[in-house]
User: Fold this.
Amino acid sequence: MHYIPNTAEVEKELLQAIGVRRFEDLLVNIPEKFLKKCQINLPFPLSELEITKYMENLASTNRHSGNTVSFLGGGAYDHFIPAAVDFLISRSEFYTAYTPYQPEVSQGTLQSIYEYQSLICQLTNMEVANASLYDGATALAEAAIMSVNTTGRNKILISPLINPFTIDVLRTYLSNRAIEIELLPESSGLSDFTDLADNLNDKIAALLVQSPNFLGNIENLNGISKVLEDNKSLLVVSVDPISLSILKSPGELGAHIAVAEGQPLGIHQSFGGPYLGVIASKKSLIRKMPGRIVGETVDVDGKRGYVLVLQTREQHIRRERATSNICTNQGLMALAATIYLSLMGKNGLNRVATLCLNNSHYLCDRITALQGFDLAYDNTPFFKEFVVKTPVPAKKIIDDGVKENIFSGIDLGVYRREWKNYLLIAVTEKRTCQEIDDFVKFLSKF
Assistant:
């Protein structure tokens, strides 16, 4: 925020221009009983130097992954972000661009979106991708709507081990669309597909599943797409994009639609956003995909150019035919992901994923060697997150950890009563052996 000094004379002039005598006159619509409880006692005016120091000191009291060793996950992860990402997206031609309403003069924006779409298709092994959505949760909700619109059916099967917040968003999106949601059973930290074929009928539009799931476990999706296709239903898979360099991609699993939270791809955690919704699908579903899609062409002189080839938004076509009312895309976040993926390349991304895998399994082995700590789901493969049973409530471990500048993980008891002593721990490539060993030493106190 810019420092804008206002003298008493300037303040008086501003109030006169508005048409009031005092600042308090702007608050007349607020009931007196609330005003009394919300008295603002600002300190004496400070100089720019003084206020900058004051705000920096105030901000330094926040606990965040920049000054704390973080084992938090559950959808937002502390991955390393190369300096070039922030530098490039901060350039004015990117930072101030809004949306390509006039594509003929937005070639730079269109090209960055085209590159983003191409990279997402390569990453997911899918055929088409759009210009991004708001976040992973809304991307999955849009995929559900896309499935209903494609199949003409009105029932969705979902894994109970999708991120609980994502399920909440999904229910909100579908609540006024006469779309029914049915939860599948679960077993040992995984979705139970044993009776899937028996549960399918001509009302089922799609199965939605997350892998790795909310507990960090990798779902066994081999052959699931064939079962669904026999019923003319779709498979929608939500993934961790970092994992795709070492795990089977949605395309390899036969998914019809793939979605992801793009935050791990060079986007700061930022106390919760803005993030990036990734969605890709088979080409046959392209006209049901929300948002916009950029394509490459040539002009009359044979020079390469970029155009919006599909705009299925209500601003562009008849409202009843629109696939979504999304008004824009997370263009800057999509650009950050594009830069990150370009910098990392296949080898770099594989190295990041391998480090996450090795670090998480190393920590898991160290923790489960402690007395009173056990892996919640034995013999279940995981990528970078895992659940441990703790000898004390997970909340106590988390609260004590904050005092020692450690974010110990997520208390799963918040989501289910039976998970009271379950701690969800995430380990990224940023965690060093020393940090991991120090964390184990901290846990050994319980």
Summary: The chain has 13 helices and 17 strands.
